[in-house]
Specification:
Elements lengths: L8 H10 L2 H11 L5 H21 L8 H15 L4 E2 L4 E2 L1 H28 L2 H12 L4 H7 L5 H32 L1
């Protein structure tokens, strides 16, 4: 049943979407496991209001089963983008933003550590080249000179070979790490 865009449609929309609040918050918890439920509920409330306003203004033309997905997408954007405020409680998401930032930094550091461990598992030539390339930021011409390759083409071919080996090692390690993370 499609409500008309006049009268009590806002109340209708909000009531219908509120009936899905638990499902919406559970979906958000999958995307943001490090955010507390209060922040997720605030983002859900704000997303429902935004959806109702968009429907009223004509930005969203249908109210159907996809509306819940639309509300989830709005809530995700609210949780991701810094500086967004929740107008219903006049508080911002700083606490959640800090949790997200800390989680992402920790995750990034773990991934960097895995990459360094994988570089150290490679043979000395590969280790030297990838250290120069990835850690010191040297270009292929500088690497050619430092490592005494006869041409940049040979150095480039070796680089491609070493990067492929590194990618395979890192992929295996990241898969193991992600499995361990999901178990805890």
């Amino acid at each position: 049943m499609q409500p008309e865009k006049t009268g009590d449609f806002t109340d209708f929309l909000i009531k219908r979407l509120e009936s899905h609040r638990k499902d919406i918050v559970m979906s958000l918890q999958k995307w943001f496991p490090y955010c507390n439920t209060m922040h997720l509920n605030e983002a859900c409330s704000q997303a429902i209001i935004i959806f109702a306003e968009n429907f009223k203004s004509g930005k969203s033309h249908k109210f159907n089963n996809e509306s819940r997905t639309y509300v989830i997408a709005i809530a995700k954007k609210l949780l991701i983008h810094k500086g967004n405020t929740i107008t219903t409680s006049h508080t911002n998401l700083c606490g959640c933003e800090q949790d997200i930032e800390n989680h992402l930094q920790t995750e990034q550091q773990k991934k960097q550590q895995i990459i360094l461990e994988c570089i150290n598992q490679l043979n000395p030539l590969a280790r030297q080249m990838l250290t120069l390339l990835l850690i010191e930021g040297k270009d292929i011409l500088e690497i050619t000179k430092v490592m005494n390759f006869s041409s940049a083409q040979i150095a480039s071919t070796a680089k491609d070979k070493f990067i492929l080996k590194l990618k395979n090692l890192v992929a295996k390690k990241l898969l193991e790490w992600e499995r361990n993370e999901s178990e805890t």
